[in-house]
Amino acid sequence: MRVIVTGARGKVGRAAVRALMESGHEVTAVDLDRPVFERPAPGEPRYVQADLTDAGQAFAAIREAEAVVHAAAIPAPTSNAPHVVFQNNLMATFNALEAAIRSGATRFVNISSETVPGYFFCERPFLPDYAPVDEDHPIRPQDPYALSKHFGEQLMDAAVRRSDIRCVSLRPSWVQHEGNYERNLGPQVREPGEPGAGLWSYTDVYDLADAIVLAVESGLPGHEVFYIAAPDNAGGHDFAAMLRRAHGDAVELRELSRPDSSGLSSAKAMRLLGYRPKRSWRDYLDEDGRARSK
């Protein structure tokens, strides 16, 4: 398929481009970075610079696409003004989706967020109702990032009602790669119960890229939302014990797939999308949370 990947020079976008190309798809990479006038390196995709908050640029970049993977976004509400986060993320999603529909694309993969339920960046803190959290959990976002991702999912709902496009929204947990496992997850590996809004969940970027390929190639109708996370928690600790120690009985503990379960459930993605995560923090860190020597 001819696949457009937005945010292609970001953490998720780079891995998605590579996985899609390895799966035989013709990929065009789109991002804000200025292109360089050089002969493409072997295996490098075609690159287009575009600001997707501008409808004209979005339409120009996404024309002739058969599928779109929309990973472009400001990735958190903490380093930009709130209105900048909300406007950028929501308008980029709206424009990219509108361009995909008008170009005749049949599949749109929307990279949403685990923050959609709202308990990550909230000014008035609250806990999830239950764990592991799944797609049925109530949605109560307060911050501009989670709101933009929630509204992005609603744009997918509207798109399938008014066109023949099929949409998948992926809600990845905290995305890790070779360069940041020790910095981000090391403390949680060393200290069972180290606080974290994501209930000790994480996602390997290459497992997420595999899920993106599955979503592009999926024949699922309508719009489906999936959590994407590693099956275990950071450190491989006893999840029930950590949850009780951190939150007592304030969070309902539901059935676990394994004792060292993640705080997010990817059961739906495994069932309907065929998601099979292959990578773990153990591939990168030792039992003390230090990077393994190469």
TrEMBL record:
InterPro entries: Epimerase_deHydtase, Lipid_A_modif_metabolic_enz, NAD(P)-bd_dom_sf. SUPFAM superfamilies: NAD(P)-binding Rossmann-fold domains. Residues 3-222 form the NAD-dependent epimerase/dehydratase domain. Signal peptide: none annotated. It comes from the Bacteria. This is Nucleoside-diphosphate-sugar epimerase. It comes from Nonomuraea roseoviolacea subsp. carminata.
